[in-house]
């Protein structure tokens, strides 16, 4: 990461030299204004760092202190709201985003983020009400992603499909949207379409374990009990075999489920407690 200190020092030095050379009575005021501008740049850089690479709870502490010192600064309260969500402090994040969204300086994007926080808090009706306040001209990835999730919750499948498709056109990292859209189809019983969407998600992000697990669920629901040909670690393979086994057992394919559980136990490089316990319970029930 480049350090902004050196160029800032250079700017300050130039201002000082200019002031000294001119003998201007306003030189001190010029220097003060220049240093104030530099401090703003410094603070802006620090805010960005806190919102991206800093530990989420450290960022929360920073923005709590900063916004407490300057309660009229909506940008600092916005940073606090973002940091609370990053730190998985969802209830506090909802309160913080509500304050930002309802502030006279609040923007449509703030209202979209408020809706996203409400979704995380499982408050779907409230999220829908907030999104309804956002004008249709505000067309962003997050807006359509949240609209799709709300439509899913309402089982408005056509609307959900439309919103997912629009969201896909507004992002360069579509794996998450494809995974959510796939899960939507999985919940509807459209297993083949769900499988296709999960496969597309993994094409964009081969390491997304949630999509791998969902892909196994979609295949298992179609009684395809072989693992898909995807990149996976040994631990992931064991976990996916376990998911497949539970899917088979749920569909009363007990022999296949037992075999898959045993394979999961044998595949895991360490003790796989959940699979071992499920296998023991299954064998106990069968023997009884």
Automatic annotation (TrEMBL):
TPR repeat segments: 175-208
SUPFAM superfamilies (alphabetical): TPR-like (SSF48452)
PROSITE patterns: PROKAR_LIPOPROTEIN, TPR
Keyword match Lipoprotein: no
Superkingdom of origin organism: Bacteria
UniProt keyword list: TPR repeat
InterPro entries per the UniProt record, alphabetical: TPR-like_helical_dom_sf (IPR011990), TPR_rpt (IPR019734)
Keyword match Transcription: no
SMART domains per record: TPR (SM00028)
Transmembrane intervals: none
Protein name according to UniProt: TPR repeat protein
Source organism phylogeny: Bacteria, Pseudomonadati, Pseudomonadota, Alphaproteobacteria, Rhodobacterales
